[in-house]
Amino acid sequence: MEISRHWRLAKQRYALVGEVCPNCEHKIFPPRDICPDCGEEAQDLYQFSGRGEVYSYTQVQQAPTGFEEYAPYTVALIKLEEGPMLTAQLTDMGKRPVSIGMPVEMVTRKLRSDGERGMLIYGYKFRPAIAS
Amino acid sequence: MTNHQHGSGDDVVIIGVGMTPVGEHWDTSIRELALQAIKMARGGLAALIPDAIYVANMLAPALSSQTQLGALISDFAGLRGVETLTIEAAGASGGSAIRQAFMALKSGLAKCVLVIGVEKVTDGVGTDVDSALATSTDADYEAIHGITPTSQAALLMRRYFYENDAPKDALAGFSITAHQNAITNPNAMFRQGMQPVQYLNAPMISAPLNMFDAAPLADGSAALLIARADAVPSGLSAPMVRIIASSLASTTLALHDRPDMLHMSALESSVQQALEMSDLRLEDLDLFELHDQYSILAALALEAAGFAPRGKGWELARNGEISQSGSIPISTFGGSKARGDTGGATGVYQVAEITRQLQGLAGENQVADARYGMAQCIGGVGSTAATHILARIEP
Ligand SMILES: [Zn+2]
Question: What was the ipTM of the complex prediction?
Fold first, then answer.
């Protein structure tokens, strides 16, 4: 479905490219072109580090269409170290328990498969941070 | 104080109410379901042709492959030719449609408006229903990660428990109260009541959110015939009820874009605007039909309205304040939790139920001497909030 839509979002989804406000330096993800902080135009691209921490999380038992093969899976709100929050799945958890405040880092994974047309959509998920 | 008893011509008055039972209406189509509610609302007033018809619905495009419900339902109800359209704001559709009716009537462009809330969930099955519900989230940045409104409520719930010192079963009272109130509501989906132990043993559907923290989505339709006071026909059989305040507020669609997500800012500002318009204080309200689609949202709605300080909304459920005889009764006919959640029709059910309360026609569910009631329905996990305050018209 909607091939052009997912193509358009590829840069953000694969590489966590957002924006920075030239006026107040507010970092923006997802990109929204108008700074939510000061209301100025903000279209300067900004590369996020991909590091952040878990703000909240839950385990989805009943998956929507296209996600059945992953269920049950854990979705989380991730607070990026640059400030913004985003929604993403956690992955590569192994037996490790999730907790609020847990450091995580971005990886690129398959997000969803559209069975009928065979289209695969890739994008960011987050895994436990490798100690640095 | 207030001068609600001195009516004026542009007062907005509810003159007809209809509600179908909520449940799985396998053998009834969306147009037939809506017609049942319309017939009840127009009962005895069939000669009164509304100037506009607003249909509140959220899932028909996804589950019934149907848009233009306005034209479909108006024609099916024998009201072909009347101005009509669908109003969609996910779970806030119902209150949003009432808001449109309120503005049309106040402006004088319409003298009488028919509002219909209708949802036909059983037109879809399995994961398709979850996908349809997920369309109320941000498709590009939330739904694509496999999120659903249920898991968003669970994210809020986990954070709420993390930030506030609340026991594991802190939210149980919302479910228990709703189920208790539904026992005597013939339109309710669940009428068996429930015990605290059932809450503790309930299976998780999106941990820490369990089966009793979520309302069942079901089919149903409710309708309201609303008119300007100067256009009300004589000889009505039931007492009239006035809508004295109407407001609609919004915040970010995506949950992650809110700077403080446990503070439901749209809910708070819509209540503040409604109180200001009605010239009432919270203490004046005799009941509050809030949107208890998830128990955490009930707690957050009580906090946003100002009935409880931040992090303490659950205590009102714990100590009986939200029960029929408490200080602020909620879900008086079972709410979404036990009456059943009818998606975009929810706000119309709420106002229909408050109308029954203020008319003194609520039977065993009657809140004693109810004069003022507030209804609030929300879209998604608080992106849109529509709030209405209704007043009894003293005889
Ligand atoms: Zn800025």
Answer: 0.94
